[in-house]
Amino acid sequence: MEKPALEDLALNGEQVQRVYLDELGDIRQLPLWVGLMVLTTVDESAAVTDARNLISRAQTEATAEESRVIIDMVATIIWYKFEQLSRSEIGTMLDIPVKETRLYQEGRQEGRQEGEANLILRLLKNQIGELPEAISTRIRELPIEDIECLGDSLSDLSTLTKLQEWLQLPDTDPSS
User: Fold this and answer.
1) How far apart are CA 97 and CA 72, in angstroms?
2) pLDDT of residue 85
3) pLDDT tens digit string along 25-51?
4) Alpha-carbon dihedral of residues 11, 17, 22, 27, nearest 10 degrees?
5) What was the pLDDT predicted at 17?
6) One domain, residues 117 and 86
7) Where are the beta strands (DSSP E) in the chain?
8) Together in a domain, 80 and 38
């Protein structure tokens, strides 16, 4: 007789109960945290109404900190459902101050980081000449704090070798 696989026993055993989010009932009647999970499964046609309901409930049923976290999560879920919309359109759709959401703050931080990296790359190109792609990529991937430090160190980085040392990269062929 063939023994069942361990994962079959675990997933089909008596101690495991499967829960299907789309079978939990009306999202408005579910606890807030469960409602958040269910929101990920809701059709786009109902998502905005359900999201607004969760936000309204969070503002009345949860602490200020929990409410902020729930609103951030709702905004993120809706943003993934409606990827063609901008962050500000999502904020308007949900009637929330978008500038206060984590989604907006992260987008703003990414934009700032990208802008600073591009500025540093232009300055380095003027100072050193054309940069190898590996170095450009490395600079674009730096955290914003490191990009700012690199900017402060620009006057000391007069050669490609010094830049590679600062970035702690091995020598690269400038033609790459």
Assistant:
1) 11
2) 87
3) 899 999 999 999 999 999 999 999 999
4) -140
5) 77
6) no
7) none
8) yes
